[in-house]
Amino acid sequence: MCRLFIVTSTVLLFIVVSSTNVIGAFAATPTANTTKSISTNDSPNILVNPVQGPTVSKQLVLRARSSWPWYITRASGFVGAFSLVLLMLSGIGFTTGATFRFLEPLTAWATHKAIAYVFGISVVIHGVALLFDKYVPFTIAQSLVPFLSHYRNVTIAGYHFGSLYVALGVFAFYFVLAIILTSILWIDKKPHTWKLFHFLAYLTMIFVFFHALYLGTDLTHGIFRIIWIIFGFIVAVAIIYRLRRRAKAL
Q1: pLDDT for residue 160
Q2: Is residue 173 one of the residues assigned to a domain?
Q3: For the chain, percent of residues with pLDDT exceeding 70
Q4: Which of 97, 116, 129, 147 is the most exposed place for a label (fewest CB within 10 A)?
């Protein structure tokens, strides 16, 4: 028994020592999938200097605070331009009957009126937001008096027209104001006068078209410029058809 115990203990000890040596040799052998561990003493000396100034979040907040008038001006211009297109087409459709193919008379009138409210509000927001823009500053006088601004002066064939496209926007604002006031006050009392003032909508569309085409940030190039030109062409065809129809009726 004693001899068996000694032999067994010797064999087990040999197996443990041999296994330990094999495992140690395998661990020390580099393979393609193993990576060399790097002690803290092997790490390079890296100096991290703090960046002076506001953080990224603060920069975004500051930019939003300084740029919000530009975004509001841009958005309200978008809404105003395309709501004007809908107003023109639906209004001409009242005369030609095209609008009533899609909507019942009462629904068509209510829709036209609602779009008119959206257009009027967007025009006011568009003008007021310009007063707070720090990159392209406008005064109240420049926003209300044509050609008083010097933003993007226009020269055609050697003749200087000042801020022509800004002036077109100012004139369009007064046309819209006249149309809205006469629609509120005279649509029932003086329908003939109201109709005469409503023809200013055609001039408004022309002025707004060129105002947006040459001053609109999103209409300088790209798909939105193409879409705006297509809309302008569609409204122009509708206006010509409406005027020819009226001329034949006379």
Answers
A1: 87
A2: yes
A3: 73
A4: 97
